Amino acid sequence: MECSDNWKEEWWSGNKEYGATWQNTLNEVVVHYENQTLWRRVIGAKYENEDSWMIKIVTTPYGISLWRSIRALWEEVKPKFKMKVGNGNKIKFWKDEWHEKGNLETLFPDIYNLAMFQQRTIAELWTPQGWNFIFRREPNDWEVMRLAEFLNLVGNFTGLQAYEDMLWWKGNNKGEFKVHSAYRLMDQSSQQSPIWPWKQIWKCRIPHKVSCFIWLLAKEAALTQDNVMKRGITLCSRCFLCGETLETVNHLFLHCKYTRQLWRIFLSLEGISWTMPRRVTEALYSWEEAGALAKDRTRWRIIPASIWWAIWKERNSRCFEGIENSVQDVKLNCILLLCFWCNQLYSNDTASIVDVLDSI
After folding, report:
1. Closest to 165 (Cα-Cα) out of 86, 229, 224
2. Domains of the chain, residue spans
3. Residues in domain Reverse transcriptase zinc-binding (predicted)?
4. For the chain, what is the largest distance between any 2 Cα atoms, rounded to a whole number of angstroms?
């Protein structure tokens, strides 16, 4: 299989969402494993090859967490390839998906059970005269039609070629692995909401660490108390701001009565009557729609990030330092943060704050 020389550039251009970065990087390593490079031979010698394409599953409990993570992706990546038959030395006749109709073991399980030498490659079963199948016994009357169907399916095989067997990537017509096509395949099969707000996360003009934090909120993976408890830590979960209910991502950043006061500041400026969505992803999408008539949509998109960052800092101040600020102070911090990000400089000048708020 061939991979383009400019795969690094394709890697950056192909990823719209940084959350897919790590997994796509591992996919790239998995795909390159089939090449006969030195590192491939070293890893194959250390962990033993499972077949011609990949090593066995890594079970050692320490020292190889990186390669164990890479190897674990093979089961996800493998169905996105098909085998292109060359000399037939690598591709297993029954086990690998080399035929256009699919995996022969899956298509004909009854014939597979009849066959001997089920681990043999195509080269071992092919002769100049055709296929050389050996069965355990004579087929029964009710198996004859299935056997004829099987032989008819594999009978159109044209023979072996001079080049080596290769993996053919299903993501494009050329069969070459490209990171952007892998991203598209992953995105199609993901369980994310169909209205995933990646532009509101990664295209918003805010510090990168804040974008990463908003991405965690959208994934509901920020370390609020409910997520800490999922890691096996026992807590008496209560919202640090209102103290009325369990602390979850959606409660703390959307539904908490403390947080709602920050949202009202900006909604009242536009005269918007807004019902708070259930989840952060829905809030980002709805906020984008609500800002259709905003004077400056770039600044409008920054508002949720400034609210959530101010709330998170106040929550952590109460949790780890025992310092509790008034809601008015948190509102002021939120507005100043918005002005700072809009102007790329810190200023507590009242006129500049008014100008920024008036431009929203």
Report:
1. 86
2. 1-85+165-190, 87-157, 198-359
3. 177-263
4. 93
